Amino acid sequence: MKAHIHILGICGTFMGGIALLARELGYRVTGSDASVYPPMSTQLEAAGIELMQGYLPEHLQPAPDCVVVGNAMTRGNPAVEYMLNRGLNYSSGPQWLAEHLLHGKWVLAVSGTHGKTTTSSLLAWILEYAGMSPGFLIGGVPANFGQSARRGDSDFFVVEADEYDTAFFDKRSKFVHYRPRTLVINNLEFDHADIFPDLAAIQRQFHHLVRTVPGEGQVIHPAGAAAVDAVLEQGCWTPTASFALDTSADWRAEPLQADGSSFLLRVPGAEPVTVEWGFLGRHNIENALAAVAAARHVGVPPAVAGEALAGFRGVKRRLELLGSPNDVYVYDDFAHHPTAIATTLEGLRAHVGQGRVIALVEPRSNTMRMGSHREALAASTASADAVYWYQPPGMDWSLESVAAASPVPAQLFDDVEQLAAAVAAQSKAGDRVVIMSNGSFGGVHQRLLQALESGRTP
Q1: How far is C-alpha 91 from the chain's CA centre?
Q2: 2 known ligand binder
Q3: In what residue span(s) does the Mur ligase C-terminal domain sit (predicted)?
Q4: Dist. CA 440–CA 60, nearest whole Å
Q5: I want to staple 126 with a disulfide (CB 3.0 to 4.6 A). Which of 58, 141, 308, 378 is the partner?
Q6: Alpha helices, DSSP H only, in 268-301?
Q7: What is the Cα–Cα distance from 269 to 260, expressed in whole angstroms?
Q8: What is the Cα gyration radius of the chain?
């Protein structure tokens, strides 16, 4: 009989990926979550995974061989308390992944505050294009694969390496479990104010990660990034390679178009490679540089990586075009931090030139809801022509000061229908509207698309 694992918090992107991988490995997989709904629920059910609504002790009867506990689970949760009281075997998602799949693999881990999902997706696609059939676990859905996780048919495994804590019983960052041979540190800023008191605390976790990379591995990092340099100065026993735009870094890129849609790769020991692709912004070129460098560490020639970049189809919710009703282009972007908001809007601004860019922003991450980034929020939208701020329910502070300090015309709403109506009424052909949130934003995406399609407000 197949071993049975039950996953608590199965509908999160990471834990859902664990479920899919476990199913591929031959386990019987069940799971429960507070919110069981598409698209993750349909993806899991299609894989033969039984889903249960809520966290009832009955879901753990009869006892599974192992309970895999998501990091959203807390003491006091009925299923967690039952698990502990009955002495059931349990593990965290990262620990289970490390023990059952990553052991013996060449792990390529992508870490950093921004760009992890895109860079992981780029790296997995480059390896796939090169015929290396990697496994992967990514915190998003790369369009080239149509799924967030797979076992793969080789010794190579790409993992998005998150610094968030592992579980209620393991407060180390998830990524310390992965033991990568190739490590990318994309960038490093203060984030996750709900679990880290300051940047130094995050840097300490990154230092722990660096300690796990073997001397025959490689650490790939941005040139001249003080916060990352400080991590490496705490101790690094592994060769490093730097990347940057227009500097003397080991891996360099020169934008050929201001919007980042084409660039020249200058790589160590090889001819320059020209890349033309459908993505915008200097930040995405940096993501591509990191992915190409990591791929080279496992043997992919830069020219092959450049060809792969031209065929990259992106990641859902990363400046994803949802539609263009009446020539108003509506994008969805997973903006979770002022830097992410700014770089996305800067790239789009360079692409459209004098065309209008309108931003709809919901500060939804725990860090932004706590107000840790309030001083940087207004300036982050400077590349837009107008910004509509949404005050989500339960937020600890008011966005009135952010709207008042805006460098561009700004309006504040606390009602999604009114927000969609206002944007639809003021949009015109040729506008680019970017909906920026790491959540569902109250369904504003479909409300706005429908309003624009019908030519009326919701």
Answers
A1: 23
A2: no
A3: 317-439
A4: 30
A5: 308
A6: 282-297
A7: 24
A8: 22
Tell me whether residue 198 is exposed, middle or buried, using C-beta atoms within 10 angstroms of its C-beta: 0 to 12, 13 to 18, 19 or more: exposed
CB atoms within 10 A of CB 214: 11
Task: Tell whether residue 117 is among the known ligand binding residues.
Answer: yes
The neighbour count for residue 7, using CB atoms within 10 Å, is 28
User: What is the Cα–Cα distance from 155 to 169, expressed in whole angstroms?
Assistant: 30
User: Which of 3.40.1190.10, 3.40.50.720, 3.90.190.20, 3.40.50.920 is the CATH number of 320-454?
Assistant: 3.90.190.20
- Rounded Cα gap, residues 204 and 348, in angstroms: 35
CA atoms within 13 A on the CB side of 190: 15
The angle, 0 to 180 degrees and rounded to 10, between the axes of the packed helices 116-129 and 282-297 is 50
Is 13 among the annotated ligand-binding positions?
A: no
Residue 358 near residue 387 (C-beta atoms within 8 A): yes
Phi, psi of 230 (to 5 degrees): -65, -35
Max Cα-Cα span within the chain:
64
The residues, any chain, with a CB within 8 Å of residue 138's CB and separated by 6 or more, are 17, 117, 120, 121, 124, 148, 149, 158, 159, 160, 315
- In angstroms, what CA-CA distances link 352 with 17, 278, 356? 36, 14, 8
Residue 279: count other Cβ atoms within 10 Å of its Cβ: 23
Domain regions of the chain by residue span: 4-92, 104-310, 320-454
pLDDT tens profile 238-264: 999 999 987 889 999 988 888 888 999
C-alpha–C-alpha distance, residues 49 and 58, integer Å:
17
212 is in an annotated binding site: no
* Percent above pLDDT 90 for the chain: 54
215 is in an annotated binding site: no
The pLDDT value recorded for residue 22 is: 96
Q: Dig out the tokens for 21 from the structure.
A: 């991988």
- In this structure, whether the domain defined by 4-92 belongs to CATH 2.60.40.3090 is answered with no
Over residues 191-215, the mean pLDDT reads 88
